[in-house]
Design a protein that fits this description.
The radius of gyration is 28 Å and the shape is elongated. It has a 7-stranded mixed β-sheet with strand order 3-4-5-2-1-8-9. Helix 16 crosses helix 18 and helix 21 crosses helix 22. The chain is built from 22 helices and 11 strands. The N and C termini lie far apart (about 80 Å). By secondary structure, the protein is an alpha+beta fold. The protein has 4 domains: about 170 residues, 2-Layer Sandwich (Beta Polymerase, domain 2), CATH 3.30.460.10; about 80 residues, Hydrophobic Seed Protein (Orthogonal Bundle); about 110 residues; about 45 residues, no CATH class. The chain binds cytidine-5'-triphosphate (CTP). The site of cytidine-5'-triphosphate (CTP) has 12 residues, from helix 8.
């Protein structure tokens, strides 16, 4: 791409908010004053060339990234977290510089080469040129750089022909050991393929094979789960998981992982304006694993290092689905007292797959219904605090839920009959 065309993209406020453009100019000026070649890399370049709005700023310098970071905080303030071993830093610009549309952290990295002691190990890192740095990356579409310092601002570096692959919609690994050295890239490749409706380049497709599967098997649960979490963040997560399955990768991660039911995929984007925090990722796992037997859920949870909270939410969906027939045609109070034992996002997931309206009533109304009477009121009436308190308050709450009382006066009358 010509420099002028690239500059036009970099100045397009729909792709790069004005605040981010300003931030980039400041970084470019600092790098130039230090005589330090400085580049935007990775997803930033890829998404800009695809005419998609960019989010992260990923910056690589030929020189010392920590030095650049220090110059930036001296000029613009903010905080720097430096890792001296890898000469990398994360700059958190001060809130005055950082408007709502700019990232709150910017990665500053020293260009580096990586070598791996054994597959799946963390790499040994040595300083290098930008071209070396691009060559160590995962895919050609992620291995382009835009130079920023001084007169070089807006020059595209594309030694691995990423732009041609972007134009043709191809995900191409840079070398034949890529997935063996870093098996998370198998899942990354499928994620990019699904996100952009690209295709795996045939040789890259062949690298998803028993040799790289062996390396994938020895990855830690945490790293595997992180990659699956990232898939659930994608708009078409369901299709991507199915493709992971079709390429026989799911089975390697854990043989009990089931096929994702595509009819559930849209549920991930549903918003019923319910006021409890719902994470797309947790919902994804719940929808995916809810029909498995308990022992398989636990075995997958162990392999993927789920938090106990996530495991609990998935098990709750499976248990609530089984309990549902017993609750049918119950009074609202019976529903409410039963459902309160489950996390709201699990109840919501069961609603999505069963459309049982009582679950939605519970989430949006019933669970907020409380009597006016409080423990203090009961004390004021001379009752000693104890388990009886809870029973009385539950009784009053049930009366509200089931429409037995509908005003404070009626609640007081009922309380008088109980006491
Ligand atoms: N990268 C890599 N191998 C990995 C992970 C990352 O080579 N296993 C490189 C790629 O060049 C990638 C960059 O590091 O572009 C940044 O990684 P990441 O932040 O995960 O991806 P983005 O490119 O920002 O893409 P997105 O977050 O949109 O998936």
């Amino acid at each position: 791409m010509q420099k002028d065309d690239l500059l036009r993209l970099m100045h397009d406020p729909n792709l790069l908010p004005a605040e981010m453009q300003d931030l980039l100019s400041s970084i470019a000026a600092q790098a130039a004053s230090l005589n330090m070649p400085c580049y935007l890399v990775g997803g930033f370049v890829r998404d800009l060339l695809l005419n998609k709005p960019v989010n992260d700023l990923d910056i690589v310098v030929e020189g010392d990234a920590i030095k650049l970071g220090n110059a930036l905080i001296q000029k613009h303030g903010g905080k720097l977290t430096a890792h001296t071993k890898f000469r990398t830093a994360i700059w958190h610009p001060s809130t005055s510089l950082r408007a709502s549309l700019t990232p709150d952290a910017i990665d500053l990295t020293t260009a580096r080469k990586e070598s791996y002691d054994h597959p799946g190990a963390l790499p040994t890192v040595t300083p290098a040129t930008i071209e070396d740095d691009l060559r160590r990356r995962d895919f050609s579409i992620n291995a382009m750089a835009i130079r920023m310092d001084g007169d070089h601002f807006g020059e595209l570096l594309d030694p691995l022909n990423g732009q041609a692959d972007l134009d043709q919609g191809i995900v191409r690994a840079l070398h034949s050991r890529s997935f063996v050295e870093d098996p998370t890239r198998i899942l990354r490749a499928i994620r990019y393929e699904g996100r952009y409706s690209f295709t795996l380049e045939p040789e890259t497709r062949k690298l998803i094979n028993p040799e790289s599967f062996a390396c994938l098997s020895s990855l830690s649960g945490e790293r595997l789960r992180h990659e699956i979490d990232l898939i659930f963040e994608e708009g078409n997560a369901g299709k991507i998981i199915i493709r992971v399955d079709n390429l026989k990768v799911l089975n390697v991660i854990h043989p009990a992982l089931p096929r994702f039911n595509l009819t559930y995929a849209n549920f991930l984007d549903m918003d019923q304006n319910l006021d409890f925090p719902r994470s797309r990722i947790t919902m994804g796992y719940m929808l995916w694993l809810k029909d498995l037997p308990e022992d398989e859920i636990l075995s997958i949870a162990k392999r993927l290092d789920f938090t106990s909270e996530l495991t609990h939410s998935i098990r709750a969906v499976s248990q609530l689905k089984k309990k549902l027939p017993d609750l049918m045609n119950s009074k609202p109070s019976v529903w409410t007292f039963a459902l309160e034992k489950f996390p709201p996002d699990s109840v919501y997931t069961v609603y999505l797959v069963t459309r049982e309206n009582a679950l939605l009533e519970y989430l949006s109304i019933w669970r907020y219904v409380k009597p006016h009477t409080t423990g203090d009121d009961l004390k004021a009436r001379g009752l000693q605090p104890g388990p009886r308190f809870g029973e009385i308050l539950s009784h009053l709450r049930a009366a509200w839920l089931d429409g037995v009382v509908g005003s404070r006066e009626q609640e007081n009358e009922l309380l008088n009959t109980i006491l």
